[in-house]
Design goal:
By secondary structure, the protein is an alpha/beta fold. The chain is built from eight helices and nine strands.
């Protein structure tokens, strides 16, 4: 039997009105219908057509009035014209705003993508009316230099607490959040604080006033149905 993949969804909430603003989608796979869902070791093993077909089938089951969903692309996926063509063709067919989250992950199956490739595609997505978020800013490949190059084409910066929570002291963590929050304000970007897991983490909302929050405290990722489940 072929590997099964599905999207899991984690809610995102607006600080302005304390309302659900959308979902971030995560791909999970399992080998059989009775086995456990787990994180794929290499997302590039799934073709763009397979991923966007799954996305299309998932969108059909989402509730009316949902503002947006975001889908993660690593660097190799992001510069792949097949993803660009499929996503830009899908957007006019759904009232839900499709957001692209460029993750900090570099290419796995080939040499690292050139920053010029990434910038060119970011510009193309913007010109096509797609909403681009820089995920995991300050970690992995999404460091300051690349962020600055992409800034003209990006609407949103996302800071992931879970990426560095265990690596730095609380004081340094707050310093890093503050730096990226200030950059977002100066550059007129939305700022998302991800990885809020406990009641104590809510103090960070008061300190930094992110535009959007996300994390286990507000909801863990859960399996989304697809339209064909009901056929």
């Amino acid at each position: 039997m072929a590997t099964l993949i599905r999207f899991f969804a984690q809610p995102k909430y607006s600080i302005i009105n304390a309302k659900l603003t959308g979902y971030e989608l995560f791909i999970r796979k399992r080998e059989t219908r009775d086995s456990t869902w787990f994180l794929p070791e290499n997302f590039n093993k799934f073709t763009p057509k397979k991923i966007i077909t799954l996305l299309t089938d998932t969108l059909k089951t989402l509730p009316r009035g949902l503002n947006s969903i975001s889908i993660n692309l690593n660097q190799e996926q992001f510069v792949d014209l097949n993803y660009f063509e499929l996503l830009t063709a899908l957007q006019p067919k759904t009232p839900i705003k499709l957001q692209i989250e460029l993750t900090e992950q570099q290419a796995i199956d080939k040499t690292a993508c050139e920053s010029s490739e990434i910038v060119t595609m970011a510009k193309a997505y913007q010109q096509a009316g797609m909403y681009l978020c820089l995920d995991d800013i300050g970690t992995g490949a999404n460091q300051y230099e690349l962020v600055q190059q992409l800034a003209p084409f990006v609407f949103e910066y996302k800071f992931a607490l879970q990426n560095i929570r265990q690596l730095v002291q609380l004081t340094e963590l707050k310093t890093q959040i503050g730096i990226w929050r200030e950059r977002a304000q100066q550059q007129h970007k939305l700022f998302v604080l991800e990885g809020l897991e406990t009641f104590d983490d809510l103090a960070l909302i008061q300190l930094f006033r992110p535009d959007v929050v996300q994390g286990y405290y507000f909801g863990k990722p859960y399996l989304l149905p697809i339209a064909s489940d009901f056929a």
